[in-house]
Amino acid sequence: MLRRNLLFCEPQGRGDAETRRHGDAGSIAASPRLRVPAPLLWGAGAGLLALLLGLTLAARGGLITVAIERPDGHWFWYFSRTAGVTAYLALALTVLWGLLASTAVGDGLVARARCVDLHRWLSAVGLALAAAHAILLVGDGYVQFDALDVLVPFVAPYRPVAVGLGVVAAYLALVVYGSLWLRGWLGQRGWRAVHFLSFPAFGLATLHGLLAGTDGGALWLRALYLLAAGLVLWLSCYRALSVLSAES
Ligand code: HEM
């Protein structure tokens, strides 16, 4: 039973308290500082996205002219790639940290009570870096991406499939992160099912980096992908075996 409660980095007895603090689907009152009704936030986000997509579609259809100023040089390309690699590192560390804590292997590293916060912080950093990675591409003169290429999977003019995998990975990671605030509404089972999406998110991000990246063939980056994927696989097997042995 103890193992089950630790599955997703959750100290015993903390789950209910967490649900009370963060789980109200009607608001994202995660802390006294932030009291914005969740439907308002989601609505504003969806409205902005719809506007962006509408404008891009209109521009592609020749209905309006939107000139994107793209400076000379490759700075945007370099910054975007740097953000991509650091986003990958943060995503890998998020998954690894969750696994470490849930298998209790990480107990010596940090107090269990702090692990949820650290896990959450790492995933927020990873998402912010992934967003920067994608947005910076719009400023690059070589690939010439627009909002549609960045937001809709598999339509980019550059390595569409490999890039599309990254877009899907980013959406999955966003859903997992968002589920932290909808825990009360999803219930423990639903939340766990959504949390499991972090594995495909990590797998797709690894494939994306390997196949889309300019440095995909570089030894140092391949070593990083291999190390991260190997550690995730090993800890996942370890966790699955501990759960099975605790149940039998
Ligand atoms: C979880 C989200 C993502 C992660 C962790 C990630 C990570 C990475 C990594 C590690 C690389 C390889 C960089 C290199 O080899 O120099 C890369 C390349 C690339 N990514 Fe992403 N990415 C993500 C999402 C996205 C999204 C949403 C887009 C939007 C279009 C995107 C577009 C690209 C492109 C065009 C490249 C090729 C750049 C190059 O040639 O290096 N990625 N990404």
Give your account of this protein's structure:
There is one protein chain. The protein has 248 residues and is mainly α. It has one domain (2-35, 68-247). It has ten helices and no strands. Helix 5 packs antiparallel against helix 7. The radius of gyration is 20 Å and the shape is globular. The model is unreliable at 1-31 (pLDDT under 50). Protoporphyrin IX containing FE binds at residues 81, 84-85, 87-88, 91, 130, 133-134, 137, 149-150, 156, 158, 163, 166-167, 169-170, 173, 205, 208-209, 212-216, 221.
Outline:
This protein is mainly α and 248 residues long. It has helices at 2-5, 14-22, 38-60, 75-102, 112-138, 147-151, 160-178, 183-195, 198-212, 219-247.
Bound molecules: protoporphyrin IX containing FE
Biggest pleated-sheet summary: none
Question: What coarse outline follows from CA principal-axis ratios?
Answer: globular
Q: Structural class, please? A: mainly alpha
Count of the separate structural domains: 1
Count of extended strands:
0
Number of helices: 10
Low-pLDDT parts are 1-31
The secondary-structure element order is: HHHHHHHHHH
* Averaged pLDDT: 83
Percent of residues in β-strands: under 5%
Rounded to the nearest angstrom, the radius of gyration is 20 Å
Oligomer: single chain
Helix content: 55-70%
Separation of the first and last Cα atoms: 11 Å
